[in-house]
Amino acid sequence: MLKNRLAYSFFIFLFSVAQCLAQGEKKAIPLKNILAQITQQHEVKFSYIEDEIIVYAVVPPEKNWSLEQSIAYLKKETKLQFKQITQKYYTIFNDQKLDKPLCGFLLDVETGKGIENALLKIDKTAISVFTNETGYFELPKVSSDLIEVQHQSYQSFTINPEDLNVVNCPKFKLQAITQTLEEVVAQRYLATGISKKNDGSIEVKPKKFGILPGLIEPDVLQTMQQVPGIISIDETISNINVRGGTHDQNLFLWNGIRMFQTGHFFGLISAFNPSLAQTISITKNGSSAFFGESVSSLVDISSRTSTVEKTNSSISTNLISVEFYTKLKVSEKANLTLSARRSLTDIFQSPTYKNYSDRIFQNSVITDLNNNEIVNYKSEVEFYFYDITTQFQQKIGTKNELNIDIIAIENTLQFNQASTDLNRNSQLEQENFGATIQWKTNWNAKHSTEFKGYFSSYDLNSSYKTLESNQILDQKNQVLDTGFQVRHSNTISKQFTFNSGYQFNETGVTNYDKVNLPLFSRTITNVLLTHVGIAEGIFETVNKKTFLKAGMRANYFDKFDSFILEPRLQFNQALTSELRFEILGEQKSQTLSQIIDLQQDFLGVEKRRWTLANNSTIPIQKSNQVSLGLSYKKNNWLLTLDNFYKKITGITSSSQGFQNQFELEKTIGDYQVLGTEFLIQKSFNRFYTWMSYSYNDNKYDFEALSSTTFPNNYAITHAISWAGIYEWNKLKLALGTKWHSGRPITTPTSFIVTETNPNIVYNSPNNSRLKDYFQVNFSASKDWKLSSKVTLQTAASILNLLNAKNSLNRFYRVNTTDNSVESVDTYSLEMTPNFNVKLSF
Questions:
Q1: Which end of the chain has the lower number of beta carbons within 10 A, N or C?
Q2: Which residues, 6+ apart, have CB-to-CB distance to 824 below 8 Å?
Q3: CA-to-CA distance for 804 and 336, rounded, in angstroms?
Q4: Sign (positive or negative) of CA dihedral 286, 287, 290, 295
Q5: What is the number of H-type helices and E-type strands within the chain?
Q6: Rounded distance between C-alpha atoms, residue 527 and residue 580, angstroms
Q7: Rounded to whole angstroms, what are the CA distances from 703 to 284, 658, 744, 782?
Q8: What share of the chain is helix, strand, coil (3-state, %, to 5)?
Q9: Which pLDDT band, with edges at 50, 70 and 90, does 5 fall under?
C-alpha cells in the first residue's frame, strides 16, 4: 500500500514538473492578449484600466483549463484582483490603485548616490530616457516589454515593468564596473565622490561629493588635505605641503592653464569655484609624462564634460561670499558655462570674516601697526575677492570638439592709517588671469589628436605708505606663461596604447621694487623658452590584473642649452581579488619657484614672489621619487599602505622661509624625505569611518651653511586624521579630528647688544618643536527637493569645534625698547562657524 502511494506521489510530481517545463517552454505574451483569448473561449467579459494591466506579460494558461482555473492562475502570476460582478462579467484591478507613471531611481550599490545619465530603453521600441542627477527616471509609455538599463560605468541589467507598478517609485541598486580601463582601488576613498585609481592618483568628483569634516562645499584644496601625506602646516591652501615639499613645488592646473594663485583671502579659501569642477585628479607620485614643471604633486582640475548637457543653474551664499553658476545648452551640440563668485566682506563683516581676518593678518604690516606706540592713529581695513569663469564647448560633427576656457581671480586689500593730521592709504592686489583653447579630433577608433594653446598671467602689486616717515614702498611680482601642446593617442591593441606629444612654453618673470626715501629702484626680468618631447605607453591585460604606464619627458631649455630627461612609471598588479601591489616612480624638474626676500614684503601678507631659474644662484630644481604601496579591499574594508623616498635638489635657502640665523642667507641645497602613509577605512550601510597616519623623516642638506644637515622647516614627523561620516537619504553628518606633531623651530641661546647692531644668537637650526597641533571639525548638510527641477542644499560647519589655541609658527625678534628677545607666535583659526545655502535649478 505504501509503495502504491509513493508511486502515485512520484507520478504526480513528474506530471507537475512536466507541466511546469511545458509552461516554461511557452513564450510569455501580454496579459491583454490572454484576456482576449479567455473572453472568446469562455464567452465572458473583463473590465480593466489598460495602464494597470499592460505591464504584465505571462505564459498563457492551458486551453483545456476551466475559467476558474485560468483566473486563479492569472491571479497568482500577476497579483491582480479579479472580481466577479455577474456570471459573465469580471472586473480586474490593482489593489494598490496606482495613479502615477512608471518611475524609479538608479543608485550606486556602494555609495547609495544617484546614477546620472543612465540609459533606459523599452525593449522592442524606440523609446528611451536618461536618469537625472539624482538617478530618477520616468517612462513616457506603459509597456509590458522589459526595460534595458545601460551605463558605461555600471553593469547592465533589465527591469521587469511589473517591478515599477508599485505605489512609490522603487530604487534599484547598480553594481559599478570595477574592471574598466579606469579601474579603481576604491570607489569611495575618504568620502563619497572620491576614488583612488590604479595609476596611484586620487580622483574627486565634486558633483557626487558627500561630506568631509569642516567643509560646507567641495573645496578642492581643502579636500586634498584629507589625503594621507598632504598637509598645510599653517592651515592655508596657499601653503600646501605634499610629502614635505613647499607649496610652489605643486603644479595646479585648471583646464590645462597653470595657476599661480590658488587661494582667496590670502590662503583660507580655494580660488576655484566648487560649483564648476567636474573632475579633480591629485597625484603625489608617478604623474603622466605630459605634466611637468613641478617637483612635488600635481592637481589637475577639469570643468569640462564629455557630453553636451542640458541647461542647469545654481546660486549660493555663505557667510563669506555669494556665487552664481549656469550651464546653457545653446544648441544640440554646444554648451556655454558661466560662473562668478564675490566676497561679501566689504558689505558686512560676519563672525566668520572676523575670525578669518584675525588669522590671516597676524604678524603682518597691518597688525604690526596696532602695536606701534610712537604715533596714536586709527587704521581701517577693506578687503574683497572675486573669481569669474567662462567656458564654451562645441561638438563639430561626430569626430571634432572645440573648448574655450577663461578664468579670472583677484584679491584686493586696502588699509588706511590716520593720525591727527596725517592720512596714508596702502593697498595689495593679487590677480591671476588665464585662457585656453583646445581642439580635439577622433580620426577613427584607434587614433585621436588634441591641440591646446594657453596662457596664464599673474600679478602681485603692493604699495605701502608709512605714516611716520612718509616712505613709500612699491613692489610688483609678475609672471606670464604662454605655450601650446600637441598630443596624439594611438590604440595599437586592446592591451596597449601609445601616446606622444610636443609642448612649447615661454615663461617670463618680472620683479620690481621701489623706495622713495632713500631713493632706490630695481627691476629684474627673466625669460625662458622650453621645448618638450613626450612619449608614453600604457599596457593593461585583458583581465585587468596588470596595469603599466611608462613614459619619458625630454626637456630642452633654450637659455641654458641643456637637456633634462624625466622618466615616469606607474605599475599596479592584482595579487589576489582583494590585494593589489603598486610601484610609482618619477623624475621631474621645475624652473619656477617662490622665494622670500624679506618677511614683511607685500605687507607681510603674501610675502612670496615667483622667480625664474638662472642656472646659477637659482638652479633648476630636480626631484627623484619612488614609492611602494599595497591596497586591500574586502567586505567594505579598505586598507592602503605606501612607503616612499623623495629627494629634491636645487632648492634655495630663500625659498624655505627661514626665520632664524639663516633668514638672510642665500645658498643652494637639497632635502630628502623617507616616509610612510597608512589609511584604514570601513563602510557600513549608512555610516563609514576612516583613520590615516603619516610619518616623515625630512632633512635639509645645505653644504654652505654652518649646520649642513638639520630638520626641514616643513617636517611634520607624525600626523593622524580621523573622521566619522553618516549619510541617510539627503542628510549628511561628519565629525573629524586632526593631530600632528609640532613644527620645527629654532630657539635662541643668548642676546648680544651692540650700539649699532643688536642680534640674537641661536641654537642649532630647528633644534626644537612647537606643541602638538590638535583640531576637531564638524559639518552637516541636507538637500531638499522642492520640485522635479529645483533642489535646495543647506550646509553648516564649525572649524576648530573645541576652540583649541594651536601655535602654527614662532620666531624671535629684538625688542629695542628694553633690549630683550621676544617670541612672536602665529596662532590657528579660532572656532569658526559657517553656513551655506545653495539653490539648484
A1: N
A2: 363, 810, 811, 812, 813
A3: 46
A4: negative
A5: 7, 54
A6: 45
A7: 28, 16, 20, 56
A8: 10, 55, 35
A9: very low
Q: Say what the alpha-carbon torsion angle 827, 828, 829, 831 is, to the nearest 10 degrees.
A: -100
* 699 vs 807: CA distance, rounded Å: 22
Per the listing, cell 469580471 goes with 90
pTM for the complete prediction?
Answer: 0.79
The strand pair at 154-159 and 171-174 is best described as unpaired
Half-sphere exposure of 458 (CA within 13 A, CB side): 24
For cell 619657484, name the residue.
Answer: 593
Q: Over 628-666, what HEC string results?
A: EEEEEEECCEEEEEEEEEEEEEEEEHHHCCCCCCCCCCC
Peptide bond connecting 765 to the previous residue in cis, omega within 30 degrees of 0: no
Segment 590-597 shows an average pLDDT of 94
Separation of alpha carbons 660 and 671, rounded Å: 18
Cβ-count burial of 806 within 10 angstroms (0-12 exposed, 13-18 middle, 19+ buried)? buried
- The neighbouring-strand residues paired with 157 are 149
Q: Provide the sign of the torsion angle of the four alpha carbons 440, 444, 446, 447, taken in this order.
A: negative
* Count of other CB atoms within 10 angstroms of residue 39: 14
Assigned C-alpha cell, 386 = 572675486
Integer-rounded Cα radius of gyration of the chain: 33
SS3 372: coil
Contacts of residue 6, defined as CB under 8 A and 6 or more positions apart, other chains included, come to none
Contacts of 561 (CB under 8 A, 6+ apart): none
Q: Are 163 and 169 in contact (CB under 8 A)?
A: no
* Side chain identity, residue 521: S
Whole-number Å distance between alpha carbons of 545 and 576: 9
